[in-house]
Amino acid sequence: MLQSQRLSLTPMAVLVSLSVWTWIWGIAGAFIAVPLTSALIILCQHFPSVRWIATLLSDDQAESAASPEETEMAARRSA
Questions:
Q1: Is residue 48 in a domain?
Q2: Of 23, 28, 43, nearest to 15 (Cα)?
Q3: What value does the mean pLDDT take over residues 45-61?
Q4: Where can this protein be found (predicted)?
Q5: Residues 60, 6: Cα–Cα separation, whole Å
Q6: Structural domain boundaries enclosing 37
Q7: CB-based contact 29:22 (threshold 8 Å)
């Protein structure tokens, strides 16, 4: 699970994404499973309606809780 620690993915997310993408696209899906899942997490972090997906898949719960825009706005308000 070295990739899951480096990419901040839960080990279960890596295993599930590997099996799902392999089932859909075969061996090619197995090679791109982790990059696709990482891209999905990054995309979901930017939209409030689907941020729960990023929180569910990401290992770093605090970082997934707020988008970069919300973090920047909070910093401006406190300054």
A1: yes
A2: 23
A3: 84
A4: Membrane
A5: 11
A6: 9-76
A7: yes
Q: Residue 54: which of 62, 44, 46, 39 has the closest Cα?
A: 44
Give the pTM: 0.63
The residue to which tokens 């499973």 are assigned: 33
Check if the beta carbon of residue 55 is closer than 8 Å to that of residue 61: yes
Model confidence at 2, in pLDDT bands (50, 70, 90)? very low
The answer as to whether 2 is a domain residue is: no
Q: Above 70 in pLDDT, residue 36? A: yes
Mean pLDDT of 65-79: 65
Q: Domain total for the chain?
A: 1
Decide: 12 and 57 in contact? Cβ < 8 Å: no
